[in-house]
Specification:
Layout lengths: L4 E2 L2 H8 L4 E5 L6 H16 L3 E5 L29 E5 L11 H4 L5 E5 L10 E4 L5 H11 L6 H14 L10 H12 L4 H9 L4 H12 L2 E3 L4 E6 L1 H7 L11 H4 L6 E9 L2 E8 L5 H7 L3 E2 L3 E7 L2 H14 L1
Parallel strand pairs: 1-6, 2-3, 2-4, 4-5, 5-6, 8-9
Antiparallel strand pairs: 7-8, 9-10, 10-12, 11-12
Helix pairs in contact: 1-4, 2-4, 2-5, 4-5, 5-6, 5-7, 8-9
């Protein structure tokens, strides 16, 4: 059993700098926050003369091709060298590593930096703080490393903040979120370009899929719960891929009277990725934890296996109980 320890950000920076090489883990099915956090730390460590690589168990979604450097991110099977330390960013529980977890735990010097309240403190050294984005924490972490926030690093960090706050529209945005974003723009981050690429630039396939999915939206619990479903046939009919569904769940949550929005996305036969969002009256982290998932009070997720109708009924009941 791994002995865990919660330490300050200054302490975790000082501890990590003892090692000459660091392998940084992003979670499977990556989003902008985990990718931005990982690439920012990698760049800061490289600039400090350390050896660093980023690994992710999943393919990088096409929308992030805006960052050519993301092509350097490796799959677990491509890691053949040994690293003195392993660091995970934006990963709350072991299952989020995907196939990369076995590689992660082979190292005795494990570090975990995250912003999810559901974090299970699985590493030797853990730093968990409830912020809107992990990149907010990574901004402070890089400062503790004694590294400069270059324009490249600022871009990575702003990517994470923009994507995890819905372009600063979600209720998780705090004074600190805006303060860090302002400092990143001062350091050269491209606010307009990143915002456009993440929220306005989309393919025809994604647009058609969005229309198809929202047209089938269902309401439950006196219209307080809205459910959208993205099934295998939806992907086949539109030519879209699963990574194009990011942001879909924001639409049902925007409907007047809806308190909780749920997205049920089929990942393989009889397996569904569940995303939950709340306006505040329901703690969806508690709902997700019933099924082995987690995240934040207002935004969480989990995986459920079974027949679609059974999965939907389980989620509706869990939200109703909450």
């Amino acid at each position: 059993m791994q002995t865990t320890k919660m330490i300050t950000l200054k302490e975790i920076a000082r501890e990590l700098l003892k090692y000459d090489s660091v392998l940084i883990f992003s979670h499977a099915r990556p989003d902008g926050d985990t990718l931005g956090s990982a690439m920012a730390v990698k760049t800061a460590l490289l600039n400090a003369g350390k050896k660093a690589e980023v690994v992710c168990a999943s393919d990088i979604p096409a929308k992030y091709e805006f960052f050519p450097s993301f092509k350097s991110i490796k799959k677990p099977h491509e890691i053949t060298e040994k690293f003195a330390a392993h660091l995970s960013v934006d990963i709350s529980v072991e299952s989020m590593f995907g196939d990369g977890y076995d590689l992660y735990i082979k190292n005795k010097n494990l570090f975990n930096i995250d912003h999810h309240v559901s974090n299970s403190r699985y590493a030797k050294f853990n730093y968990v703080k409830n912020e809107a984005a992990c990149c907010e924490i990574i901004y402070d972490f890089i400062k503790e490393l004694g590294a400069e926030i270059t324009s490249e690093i600022a871009d990575y960090l702003l990517l994470g903040i923009i994507t995890d706050t819905g372009n600063f529209a979600h209720s998780n945005v705090s004074e600190n979120t805006l303060l860090v974003a302002s400092k990143l723009v001062s350091s050269g981050a491209r606010l307009h370009e990143i915002s456009y690429q993440m929220f306005k630039n989309q393919s025809k396939e994604r647009a058609v899929l969005f229309g198809r999915v929202t047209s089938k939206m269902k309401f439950f619990l006196d219209d307080k719960l809205a459910v959208i479903s993205v099934l295998e046939d939806d992907f086949k009919s539109t030519g879209a891929s699963s990574d194009m569904t990011e942001g879909f769940i924001d639409f049902p949550l925007s409907i007047s009277g809806v308190e909780v929005a749920v997205s049920i996305m089929q990942s393989k036969p009889n397996a569904f990725k569940i995303s939950l969002r709340s306006k505040g009256k329901v703690d969806v982290n508690e709902v997700a934890s019933i099924f082995g998932g987690g995240g934040h009070v207002l935004a969480s997720g989990c995986m459920i296996c079974g027949f679609y109708e059974d999965v939907k009924d389980k989620i509706i009941k869990a939200v109703s109980d909450a």
